[in-house]
Fold these 4 entries.
Entry 1:
Amino acid sequence: MTQALFLTAAYLLGSIPTAVWLSRRLGKDVRTVGSGNAGATNMLRTFGWKVGLATFLIDMLKGYAAVQWPIWAGFELSSPWQLALGTAAVIGHIFPIWARFRGGKGVATLVGVMLALDPIAAAITLGGVIAVIALSRYVSLGSLVGGLLFAALYAYFHSSNPTARGIWILPVIIIITHRENIRRLLRGQERKLGEKAG
């Protein structure tokens, strides 16, 4: 029962639709402009870097807190359960109950989960992501590389842990949510960082 409550709480926390609520306060629903995605990148393109950064940080905090709050409350959680809570938060971000199940792609929330699961692997991953985005100017490519790189690093650092196998669920989720981006990347039609929303 306790574990079910933790999972539910993680999903509800991940469901907080940061981009939707912030954009509505600014006079628009972010899901009706630009790419239509309720995430930090579309917020950046539509409302500027300050709003985009605020969205990213809040969504990241959701993922971090979803994994950590039971620990803060004094409960001991195994790493598989920490991964389960993080996955629930990412799914909540993608399918938020508070926004009719139309959310973002889960990347910022995943960053928070990564920091909670393994801050060293997360820091290395973020460095790699920044390098990919700086060189290619494709945020989607950086997100895809980041998901795979973190899973690989986590599996390497924790090879004797059963979570090392389950960790691959995270990049799989990111690949699924970015399937349209992958198609556009392959066609050379993906929008680059710095290009305004249409």
Note: The two ends are 47 Å apart (CA to CA).
Entry 2:
Amino acid sequence: MSLPNPAELLPQMATALTSHLNKRQIREPRFIGIRTGGVWVAQALLEALGREDALGILDVSFYRDDFTQNGLHPQVQPSELPFEIEGQHLVLIDDVLMSGRTIRAALNELFDYGRPASVTLVSLLDLDARDLPIRPDVVGATLSLAAGQRVKLSGPTPLILELQTLAN
């Protein structure tokens, strides 16, 4: 299976996001990337949109429902939100949507900061393997992987998708 090139997906994602925001009459969205891959995608998407907005960064590690099973990852860093959440139209960006649990954790964390007016979900890849009813509003590509396969994003420049097979 060949994976799509993120550089080819980003312009179409920028167009789809602009259309989505215009349709909803959202003029001043606030952009938030989920650490780490979501931040890279958010930065590339802002560039494709020709925007220089402040970028919020979420680290959802403490909000994961599997935190007690997996423990604290050594790379955990605090979230950085350089703007208010209350009443804002947010664009939440992640690299790969799989089970939906990272997005659930991100929403839980965001609501701890305030009640946004809306949240638009953008994902580079949707692996169509959700455990939760969470779907992106804007997606670069949708893939179905075989059991034991995962996709990893490397970056930030260039963004590269890599297919990985988990050891048994």
Note: The mean pLDDT is 92.
Entry 3:
Amino acid sequence: MRMTMPPKKRTAIYPGSFDPLTNGHMDVIQRALEIFDEVVVAILRNPSKKALFSTEERLEMIRQSFNGNSALKVDTFDGLLVDYARMKHAVAIIRGMRAISDFENEFQMALMNRKLHKDVQSVFLMTGLRWIFTSSSIIKEAAQFGGDISDMVPNPVKLKLMEKFPLLVEKLEQNPPKKGSR
């Protein structure tokens, strides 16, 4: 009787700061989960970058936003992404792209990653058209000044932004989001 090995799990890493997670990120992650057996959302710990949310808050917001999907893991890393990918036995690094302007920088990083670790592929996923204009920076700025970001971030993120920005709470109470927004 010949024993067969179970198929190798295809793991992809989706790195970023996720400060905060946006619906654009959610879109990329959900599509990556359709391609790979496991997706690790990896938050880069970068002490030189001033983040609005602590690493722990970001980890929790991502976990809550995906409501316990067993194919999704959330982790942190520092150092070289390819070293982290090697440690996780990843076959791919996912990069979300919003516009052609993202491509040049992402292409250079992909080539360097390939040079450093030839067995990991870079996979570029375009953000859905609905989310092309969103970025964590723009969402934070809008929230700071009371802009309604309800349909641009998952609900756990919206609640955390409301904790950080009292003006957002005030504006949302005056003009509650329409039915059907996330």
Note: The chain has seven helices and five strands.
Entry 4:
Amino acid sequence: MSKIKICGLMREQDIDFVNESMPDFIGFVFAKSKRTVSFETASKLKSRLSAKIKTVGVFVNDDIENIVRLCNAGIIDLIQLHGGENEEYILKLKEKIFNPVIKAVKIGQPPYEPSLLKQIAAIGKEDFTLYDSGAGSGKTFDWDLIKNIKTPYFLAGGINIENISFAIKKLNPFCIDISGGVETDGKKDLKKIRDIIRAARIIT
């Protein structure tokens, strides 16, 4: 059964929503975004979060020391990289912390460059790959491009209540990553979170 990550939490009520619904992971966005949170806000939200839910920090080309500080403070459990971070960057990060690293691959929309198809199949120094149509795009990509991937990965981009069951049955990813698909007017919606987690967990 695929795990569930609810990303882009910003408010105390968002934490209350996930504490009730119990996804496997939640995400705090530290990169520039409409969902960005500060170190202080993330620390406050983390203190309110159930200990059974793991936190993921989302970064784009951030200073390694900023990530290390969040890890050492116990604010994030996993690191998600969405920029141009290369293997050297990931190795330097792993020299300083033991938290698992997720590296995002932006697939986007066709036409697809040959270099992208090689990148999809590549396994680097990260612990997990995340395949996305582009951070915050709200659109899916061509899932056939990753249907033969055997290593555990996160699937993101345009996942909602209408397509989550199909995504899990077709691809069986390690984790489904959802943000806009559980929002109403740009805010996390308890009913949508509840419904999408229920839909994911009835699939065997």
Note: The longest strand covers residues 54-59.
